């Protein structure tokens, strides 16, 4: 699923963009969830509270907070989202470059260009999953995959350990591991209760792993072979049994 935000203080334009996205979602068999905003400050506030998007269609000239200032604030907390500017003028080239805009669309919107940019963004996003989506207390959340150090299960609750602390989610570790593998994302299953992100492994020894934050996790005996095989696969090395 693609999480998309549309931000434009012209309600007609915002509605038109939303409809074009919905139409493209059907023709490309893409699941989308769209949030619409009418000023930059509300969008920024939403993102500051933890919401993450894959694509943001952002108007530049808005009365309450313009799109350039909004993008600068967004980039402080989210460097991954693809920002597609939608504007009536092209006089913001320097500012757009500073916030790493993905594409630039002028009004009135050319539908063929809009479609091409949507497909470009979709292709970029689907190259590799960027977020892990989960639920806790009936609320859906997302966390960037590369921010997850490891998962730790404790009965019915799984803890997502990140550099910013831990987050709780419902779900069995087996199901989480399966979901990651289906997305071509591999974590080390060092123990029945642990899934470890390879990017945070500082030192790997036969029966343990030391992580970059100093945490040491034991590799259970029945998982040492599979961990070693995955380690060699990720490193592109031959396995010596």
TrEMBL record:
Phosphoprotein as UniProt keyword: yes
Task performed by this protein: May play the central regulatory role in sporulation. It may be an element of the effector pathway responsible for the activation of sporulation genes in response to nutritional stress. Spo0A may act in concert with spo0H (a sigma factor) to control the expression of some genes that are critical to the sporulation process.
Domain HTH LytTR-type: residue ranges: 132-233
UniProt source species: Blautia pseudococcoides
Single GO molecular function: phosphorelay response regulator activity
Protein name: Stage 0 sporulation protein A homolog
Pfam families in UniProt: LytTR, Response_reg
Modified residues (4-aspartylphosphate): 59
Parts of the chain that traverse the membrane: none
Residue ranges occupied by any Response regulatory domain in the UniProt entry: 3-122
Keywords of this entry: DNA-binding, Phosphoprotein
Superkingdom, natural source: Bacteria
Keyword Phosphoprotein (UniProt): yes
